[in-house]
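Objective 1.3, modelling of assemblies. Example input:
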Amino acid sequence: AQTVTQSQPEMSVQEAETVTLSCTYDTSENNYYLFWYKQPPSRQMILVIRQEAYKQQNATENRFSVNFQKAAKSFSLKISDSQLGDTAMYFCAFIPSNSGYALNFGKGTSLLVTP
Amino acid sequence: SQTIHQWPATLVQPVGSPLSLECTVEGTSNPNLYWYRQAAGRGLQLLFYSVGIGQISSEVPQNLSASRPQDRQFILSSKKLLLSDSGFYLCAWSVPPRRETQYFGPGTRLLVL
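Predicted structure (tokens):
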């Protein structure tokens, strides 16, 4: 079974600063995908960034980037130039490439961006 | 572009009453469709998924059922709601071959009293 662990229940950052959210996972699979989703107060789950495990290059999407360390099974999200609209729950998720349809989610990190 | 709709947005139902939640996707064909539930303060748990019309797979034994009467329509149902069915229900879609990348709808808040 795959597990996803987010060890930071809550974090806070000031506007325009940089923050890093941590995620570790456990799997015996060699090929898989990792995601970060954002859930603002509206509760809609929004895809932030996607990483394919067989790609060594870290994914980036504008102010969002990841640090993917496959050997360490670590997948952290860095948010640069934080904005008030980044305030949300952030969920790390995992899915194997060749089996199953379920995204396995961590329990989330609540991020508060302050002025 | 693709959009996904869910309704109702909020629902308050008495225990023992039936349930029907609807999800529709626009702008794509032959999507995989998913129903997830999020309990308070937790991540999402997959309940059902469908790879085609009439094809439903259940991930977790539930008081719930799902149906896919049309290509882009996915329905979550119950004959008799339990208190434990309360939660936030999210529908999602993905398109093969990138089935792993799932996009979520706005969700339905269900409160069973």
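Residues 2 and 28 of chain A are 8 Å apart (CA to CA).
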